[in-house]
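Quick one before lunch.
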Amino acid sequence: MTRRASRQVKVGAVAIGGGAPIAVQTMTKTDTRDVTATAAEIRRLAEAGTDLVRLAVPDHEAAEALAALVHGSPVPLVADIHFDYRLALEALRAGVDKLRINPGNIGGADRVRAVATAAKERGVPIRIGVNAGSLEDRLIDKYGGPTPQAMVESALTQAAVLEGLGFGDIVISLKASDVRRTVEAYRLAAGRCDYPLHLGVTEAGGLLPGTVKSSVGLGLLLAEGIGDTIRVSLTEDSALEVRAGFEILRALGLRSSGPEIISCPTCGRCQVGLPEVVREVEAGLRGLRAPIKVAVMGCAVNGPGEAREADVGVAAGKGGGLLFRGGQVVGRVPEGELAKVLIEEVRRLTRG
Ligand code: SF4
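Model of the iron/sulfur cluster complex:
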């Protein structure tokens, strides 16, 4: 698919836009002021594969914690700031790699100028994060509500303010909690600017509805070539947001990281405890980065075909299954050892 041409910004060592791989990001759920807990969450999210981590910086104490967090972080950090421009300045001094602000709510022109100047000096990009729930009254009146047009006008007006100050390292997001409005807003923005776009459906919900909403919204846009970085918002562990983000990209062939596990839903033909085998394989391969395709199939109907196409796979039968490697049957494995053998095979193949 052809991706929309966008300008590139650098967030620490991670490039966003300009044809760079689509970056997956998430947000910590700890209290940022609690450095120990937040640093541990950042490390855990880095291990889960996230490219960037964003932190809420609601007050001065949280801003004070940033220096230690930046210092120990294995991935670039983004400070999320509302209302108080001094927090943005503190975050920049602490060494964050990106700011998420809403220039519309951090005060007058002199304050926006102070933040833009400090960010420019440090080569730190700014995301203008427009949210349908907090649009300017002026635009709500003009458009009769938080419409996609209003959201895009808000973002581009704020971007023009930064551009007017000589600041162009801008990323835009246009989030609403419903998929149609989100998609429409991003499509509009994609045609009207070359800023890299941070995609997300906000307040998407719990694990299942949130993942479905995000997959539909982000999937539609990504399939049209729109989007440079993504965040899946879930009322859940942030590591699941990261995992969902990579799965969306993988489903569209946009990024492959870690094992892809192909497993059948099982049916009355399956004669082994396949869901348990899949859970064990998933758990055993968590954290692996090498791209590898693993098939875990329940019977001889589609099992051998899928297992043959994977790098390694099993097609289960009664009490066990046939093990495939590189398209060939290489052995028979008893049910109790299916997961263990698959994990060992994957580890062996990805080492060499
Ligand atoms: S592979 Fe076999 S067990 Fe799995 S869903 Fe298909 S028919 Fe059922």
